[in-house]
């Protein structure tokens, strides 16, 4: 009934529908006047597997892994965090087959599926990042999965251990 290829293909199809929105929002972020106290940007991805939803939030960070906030009077200076893309459905499934999907497909194929999901989401974000002009941004920028131990360096186009970006 379910196959890994069909599942991943459906995810690609669903998130590609959000590409224009993601590119527009990234273009706005890239144009921000970032606070000089910001050392890097973390684009954190939050995945809600039970609802098949994905959201992305950008956090302005310092080298000590703290979010940077701006308390000055210049309203053009940005620090803090901002929603990049709200909860979007990355997979459609009828509720009446959800248990079967999770028990008989997702859990049995979990390690492979998780890696493929992360690859699809990372490739999609990275492509939209480039299309939005992200390579012109002077700040180091990373795509991360919430509570994961690795980050995708958007400038170098490679995965790194989280500790590397804080050093």
Describe it for me?
The protein has one domain (4-166). Helices cover 37% and strands 26% of the residues. The chain has helices at residues 4-16, 19-30, 98-106, 110-131, 162-166; strands at residues 33-34, 40-48, 53-61, 77-78, 81-89, 141-145, 150-153, 158-161. The strands form 2 sheets. A 6-stranded mixed beta sheet has the order 5-3-2-6-7-8. A hairpin with a 4-residue loop joins strand 6 and strand 7. Helix 1 packs parallel to helix 4 (110-131). The longest helix is centred in the C-terminal third of the chain and has 22 residues, at 110-131. The chain is elongated.
Write the layout of secondary structure elements.
Layout (H helix, E strand, L loop, with lengths): L3 H13 L2 H12 L2 E2 L5 E9 L4 E9 L15 E2 L2 E9 L8 H9 L3 H22 L9 E5 L4 E4 L4 E4 H5 L1
What does this entry show, briefly?
37% of the residues lie in helices and 26% in strands. It has 167 residues and is an alpha/beta fold.
Parts with pLDDT < 50 across at least 5 consecutive residues = none
Shape: elongated
The largest beta-sheet arranges its strands as: 5-3-2-6-7-8
Percent helix, as a range, is: 25-40%
Question: What is the count of structural domains?
Answer: 1
Number of helices: 5
Mean pLDDT across every amino acid position: 94
**Total number of beta strands:** 8
Rg (CA only): 17 Å
What is the CA–CA distance across the termini? 47 Å
Give me the secondary-structure category: alpha/beta
**Largest sheet entry:** 6 strands, mixed
Query: What letter string, H or E per element, gives the SSE order?
Result: HHEEEEEHHEEEH
β-strand percent reads: 25-35%
């Amino acid at each position: 009934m379910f196959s890994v290829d069909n599942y991943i293909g459906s995810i690609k199809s669903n998130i590609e529908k959000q590409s224009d929105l993601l590119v527009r929002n990234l273009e706005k972020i890239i144009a921000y006047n970032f606070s000089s106290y910001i050392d890097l940007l973390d684009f954190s991805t939050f995945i809600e597997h039970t609802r098949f939803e994905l959201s992305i939030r950008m956090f302005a960070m310092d080298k000590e892994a703290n979010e940077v906030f701006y308390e000055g009077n210049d309203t053009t200076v940005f620090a803090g965090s901002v929603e990049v893309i709200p909860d979007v459905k990355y997979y459609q499934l009828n509720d009446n087959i959800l248990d079967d999907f999770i028990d008989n497909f997702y859990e049995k194929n979990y390690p492979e599926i998780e890696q493929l999901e992360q690859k699809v989401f990372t490739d999609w974000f990275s492509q939209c990042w480039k299309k939005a002009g992200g390579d012109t941004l002077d700040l180091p920028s990373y795509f991360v999965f919430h509570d994961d131990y690795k980050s995708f360096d958007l400038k170098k186009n490679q995965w790194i251990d989280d500790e590397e970006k804080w050093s």
